[in-house]
Amino acid sequence: MKELTIRTFVKINGDYQLWESLSSEKQNEIGISLNERALRAIGYVPVKKEKTT
User: Fold this and answer.
1) Residue boundaries of the structural domains of the chain
2) Which domain of life is it from (predicted)?
C-alpha cells in the first residue's frame, strides 16, 4: 500500500507557501491567529485584563 503524504500550504498576501518553509516564529504567529479565529467562531469573547499600577 502506498504511503499517504500530506503537505500543508498557507496563503499569505495572495501567495501559497509551504508550512515547513516558514520560520518557527511565523508558524507560531499563524497558529495563534488560527486558534483565536476558531475560538471567536464558536462565540468566545476574550477578556481584557485591567492594568494595575
Assistant:
1) 9-42
2) Bacteria
